[in-house]
Amino acid sequence: MEPADLPADTTAVVDLVVNHNVPKCPKTYVHRVGRSARAGRYGSALTFVTQYDVVLLQAVEELIGMKLKELKVSDRKVTRYVTKVLVAKREAELRLQQSNFGERKESNLRKDLLMSGIPEDEVDKRIEQIKNPRRKTIKKSSKEDLGVVKRKKMRIST
């Protein structure tokens, strides 16, 4: 399967689905994995999970009403392949970038924003904000403010 979801009208059936991450929406996970077991066929799914994905995985388990099986792997075996995987990932990203992947999505977003009444001169700014969301930061304008921020951080971490 391609890294992106296949269109809804596609009826691809595969033996194995590999998720390099846990989707943020549990229904997306079910949709992807469901491609491996259609029409009474047996199918498998492998999902790479980090400590940051546990909450997402729990949401999937809650949606499907069962616990997923954990497959333990040797750290040594994994590290052998990490470089190859990272190189392949970067090559794929470059190919997608060169083929203008996502251009249609941006074009549709632009059209939707214009249709919703947003002025044309604001559309590019909105698209840029959507593509590159910035994190909110706390202004540290004085030593006093900085002390408050440090105290809050200390309280949170204990």
TrEMBL record:
**GO MF terms held by the record:** ATP binding; hydrolase activity; RNA helicase activity
Q: Name one GO cellular component term.
A: cytosol
Positions of the Helicase C-terminal domain: 1-79
- Kindly state which keywords UniProt assigns to this record, in alphabetical order: ATP-binding, Helicase, Hydrolase, Nucleotide-binding
Is the keyword Glycoprotein in the record? no
What is this protein's record name?
A: Helicase C-terminal domain-containing protein
- Recorded source organism is Ancylostoma ceylanicum
What is this organism's lineage? Eukaryota, Metazoa, Ecdysozoa, Nematoda, Chromadorea
- Gene that encodes it: Acey_s0985.g3293
